[in-house]
What we know:
Blueprint (H helix, E strand, L loop, with lengths): L5 E2 H8 L2 E3 L5 E2 L1 E2 L9 E4 L6 H6 L4 E4 L4 H5 L3 E4 L3 H16 L6 E2 L4 E2 L4 E2 L4 E2 L4 E2 L4 E2 L4 E2 L4 E2 L4 E2 L4 E2 L4 E2 L4 E2 L4 E2 L4 E4 L4 E4 L2 E4 L6 E3 L4 E2 L4 E3 L6 E3 L4 E2 L4 E2 L4 E2 L4 E2 L4 E2 L4 E2 L4 E2 L4 E2 L4 E2 L3 E3 L4 E2 L7 E3 L8 H12 L1 H14 L1
Parallel strand pairs: 4-5, 5-6, 6-7, 8-11, 9-12, 10-13, 11-14, 12-15, 13-16, 14-17, 15-18, 16-19, 17-20, 18-21, 19-24, 20-25, 21-26, 24-27, 25-28, 26-29, 27-30, 28-31, 29-32, 30-33, 31-34, 32-35, 33-36, 34-37, 35-38, 37-39
Antiparallel strand pairs: 1-3, 2-7, 22-23
Amino acid sequence: MPLVQARLDVLAAALGGELHGDGSRIVEAIAPLERAGPREISFLAQPRLLPQLQRSEAACVVVRPEHLEQARERGAAIVTDDPYLYFARLTQWWAARTRSPAAPGIHASAIVEPGARVHPEASVGAQAYIGAGARLARGAVVSAQAYVGEGAEIGEQTRLAPRVVFERGCRIGARGLVQAGAVIGGDGFGFAPSQGQWVKIEQLGAVAIGDEVEIGANTCIDRGALEDTVIEDGVKLDNLIQIGHNCRIGAHTAMAGCTGVAGSTRIGRHCTAGGSAMILGHLEIADHVHISAATVVSRSIRKPGHYSGFFPIDENAAWEKNAATLRQLHALRERIRALEKKS
Length: 343
């Protein structure tokens, strides 16, 4: 990996923020606050970590305005309203200088079927497969051993990591990232019961993904049964997530690892789901809904807000009775309090 040596004044000029201290000082890496050394830059995003700031040996710390005085007591500082966002942009600046871009062109061992259109500035890695009629836009990257099916479309500057499967007819917009092992456009789980057996329902839709979407490793997004499964612009999906067929995930929604969304559920914009949250099928989730980790969402959510809860597994009839009683628990408590006051 190339060594980056960056002056603090160069970083501040590129990323913004108000620099306090010696702008000629060199940093060579980004490091956590408690471990940063005299040639590294760090950041303070949470006030509870102020004791670490006092002990830190970092060459420079990115802080909020209210923490400038403490930061200056120990060295240089860059002041910004949102240090965590500054850290994110700093990592992008660093990555652009330490990671070698994919070379344009098609590797000799790749297979590109007749009728596929690969832009001259796109990159197709070793042993990758590009199906007939597929389209790779300018700057698109299909890494080693990735699969792009017939008629699929990969947008500008979008990268498929190694061993991604991007099935026939699926589409992804610009500046996206699909991490290794993800499967986009596999068949949804659709079967009709018949005399104790299951008859497959062919999945005739595809998956339509917007711009600036990131999909984590080994995540699966099923193709639609008749219409497309839709992932709107700016969605961020962690590793090992399952999105069922015919779902629609609204713009800029984010989900943590192992979340599962059953088929035909529509999730609004700017929502979040914590790790291992489960969202049942055919539900409607409003915009700006935040679901805690391990929560099971069994009904539609019409109002923005933060929702939590899980309930121990039990025989279904007993579970339903207990759940119904639990929902009345607050009202029952108030009635008991009222009775106690009268007695």
